Amino acid sequence: MSHSTRSHQLPQQHAPETESLPPDEPGDGLPEEPGDEPADGPAEGPGDGPGDGLSEHAPDDPQAVPPDGPQPEPADAPHTEAPPGGWRDRHPAAARAAAWTTTALAGALVLVTLLLPNSADRLTAAEFVRIPVEGVAGAALLLLLPPTARRVAAVLAGVALGVLAALDLLDIGFNEVLGRGFNVVFDWVLLGDGASFLQDSIGRAGTIGVEIAAALLVLALLVLPALALVRLSNLMARHATRAAGTTLVLGTAWVLSAALGLQIAGAPLASRSTSDLVQARMDGVSATLKDERAFAKEAASDPYHHTPGNRLLTGLRGKDVIFTFIESYGRSAVQDPLMAPGVDATLAKGTARLRAAGYSARSGWLTSATYGGSSWLGHSTFLSGLWIDNQQRYRTVTAGDHLTLTSAFRRTGAWRTVGIMPGVTKGWPEAKFYGLDHVYDSRELGYKGPKFSWSTMPDQYSLAAFERLEHGKPHAKPLMSEIILTSSHNPWAPLPKTLPWNKVGDGSVYDSIEKSGKNPVDVWQQTDKVRTEYGKSIQYSLNSLVSYVEKYGNKNTVLVFLGDHQPVAKVSGDHASRDVPVAIVAHDPDVLKRISDWHWTPGLNPGHQAPVWRMDSFRNRFLTAFGSHPGPAPKTSR
């Protein structure tokens, strides 16, 4: 038989017809895209194609397939089966469903990262049904690029989208807590402070869990958008005609929507939010760098810089002056319908108790440079007379020699200056800037009791330690003291209780009080509970301070106390002001006469119509009221 005849009698071998990735486009590790599934026939395996068991010898080779077809195997030959194909071949319907689902999720992820707002109040469904111009432009670019460049561009764009999404989430968190967005230049250090706060609030184990979850979220934001864009770009390349048409339609729709001003739930249908946010961040970085240079010049210019001590604070000589900051004591505490009744009653009783002890008080409002946290920004603004609303300004001013209220007292040489800082748990080099002769931090106050969440010790103990270590001792000079009260610090659970002063001791008496207190996690589950406990914490701090003046004050005592900032938005509300109460208490009537032109409200509770000043204006007003005169010392005649 001729070669052609024998060949015609060979059984026909048909390879499955499949559509596969082009040789230069490896897959992305995800299920195949829709329209790329293999046919439903058997997958290739051993026995198909060259080397599959068919003879490759010449036609006349006696070992060739006989003309009448394959012969049956001998009865004693071992039986073998071709291994089954992949899971797509065995379950084609499931493979197609998985491919469609994965592609849809990839598209949704890219859309969400493009349209994600940076404020919680804009997290609505309508925000995510808009047309992002960046997506349209990106799709057009990917269609034009060659395969390798397309894959690189898709990965880089995906990582960039993930970074922007992470920054948007940081903005949301910072706005909720601090009332401002995240500053990419100098706010990274605050993440460490946040971790420390979490550890104090929910314990080490809970904090580690949160940190792991945050790390996984960041990793997912960096990886998943990149994989999603690679998948979508491969699909677009396979269906270039349809992809180009869809891109053209979406681009036309964006232009028309922008021209007509079409909106969805108040948001423009034609979105360019990603590019706007990128531009805003670039502008923010530029503004931050410019602000740093401008602020350095401002901090170096101080009318009191060269004022000699004998021309400072002449109206307070001989007085024991106490500056006290009450953590998170804001306008909301005295005017919010839920919290104000208890706090206002405490202020009214405190005014009456002080009056009975021979003291008078005046109060007003200051607008803090910070909100919800970063207390040191409020402290430094109040004491320096400079608006310090970010970390870089704080570093700049504390690295210099700008005059503060506390350092002014030290410059006179007429006071001993001390600080009671229960919130400081390690070295605090800023003490030199503030002009404090000695700082008692949490390690030097002798406390042997438990922490109350973030607060290292109750306010009453801090004041008792101040009396024991400084105020109650004989001194050659009067005292100027800066005291930070921390019991009203977030998370406001558990809370200490007011005790008789002779029962405070070394603080071990608070063990049972802390154990019987409320759990922060339970309190924070409901907004009303958080606000209620916050109000109680302010009442405790105010009671401790008033009680201290009653018991240990004297005719030379002058107390200035204020809040450093409003509490977080969960307590104060989404659009709360940054105002905090401030009051001056004195036994000597001449002290309050010096501030009569301030028109502050009599008593500890500032009225609704009391003056509102920026916090940085207080230093100069205070120095002026109590006899300070700016400028160099007058020249003496010979």
TrEMBL record:
Annotated Pro residues bias: 64-75
Q: Which UniProt keywords apply?
A: Membrane, Transmembrane, Transmembrane helix
Keyword Membrane on this protein? yes
Q: Which segments of the protein form a coiled coil according to its record?
A: none
- The portions of this protein that span the membrane are 97-116, 128-145, 152-170, 212-232, 244-265
Source organism superkingdom: Bacteria
Q: Which stretches of sequence are listed as region Disordered?
A: 1-95
User: Which spans does this entry mark as compositional bias, Polar residues?
Assistant: 1-12
Acidic residues bias: start-end ranges: 25-39
* Record-given protein name: Sulfatase
| Species this protein is from | Streptomyces caniferus
